[in-house]
Write a structure and sequence with these properties.
The chain is of the alpha+beta class. The chain is built from nine helices and six strands. The protein starts with 5 loop residues before the first strand and ends with a strand.
Amino acid sequence: MLTIEHQYIDRESGAVRTEQLLGDRMVRLLYAGTRENAPIFFRLLTSAWSSSLLGYLNFDLPLRSARSFITRCGIDPAECLDPPETLDTPRKVFERKIRYWECRPLPDDHRTVVCPADSRVLVGSFAETSTLFLKEKFFSFDELLGNRREWLRAFAGGDFAVFRLTPD
């Protein structure tokens, strides 16, 4: 199976960083060509029951080493409201409360676009490209908007931003 590195540009240093995504193998499986050739298997994997089970297995089982997980995810424990030892599952780490007013204050300029979640962002323009690469597949502008004529006209040549949630 093709493995694609997940890379982003660090906004503070400008350096290109490579990251290992949590659940990356499962995402690759769900969006692989075999999924398209086995629709019954895909429906089973994406059913509410499977989704709940995978959510529990990936996010609610206790971590072997919470500190190691927090460090690997690049999280600064000083930003957390709760003591790091209480972040004992991946879900608690991802849903942690942070001291945003101290560590991540919002800009005063009302024209600033902000994302309240920890994420990597991909920005671009459909004036420059006709496809977007998501979940290891290319999607056309028409596919993304569901071939709705009124939307296609309204957003033609428009800009886009894709936010992928991250734990840091």
